[in-house]
Amino acid sequence: MDSENTVHIKLEHGEAIHSKRGLLSAEMNSLKIAKTIGRYRALRLVELGLKGRIYTRMKETKANIKKIQSLLPEAKRPRILKRVHTEESHAVARQEYHSEDIESQLSEIQRRLDALQG
User: Fold this and answer.
1) The domain containing residue 20 runs over which residues?
2) Which residues are within 8 A (CB) of 60 and not within 5 positions of it... i.e. 6 or more apart?
């Protein structure tokens, strides 16, 4: 049954050598890619380990900062400074609202212009 499915192709000597070179170079390239992937995986594992260490150190630092803040006395501000701070925050909030409103109006006008031209 194998002899029925077997196909023989006659190649010239030059064609055979050229085909064999192509096959060997493809095999060599695939091995290089496999090697590169292996190095990538190793570097990725190192990177993930370092990220984990950074994460734990950041958590420790955050805990230390909270501990230090709890030990330090809280600064008392006069009432007038508290009032000025709240007024400034309200002014910033109003300004952000107006800038978003202007941006939406500009985009609406641009949409209308595009509709008129198109």
Assistant:
1) 1-74
2) none
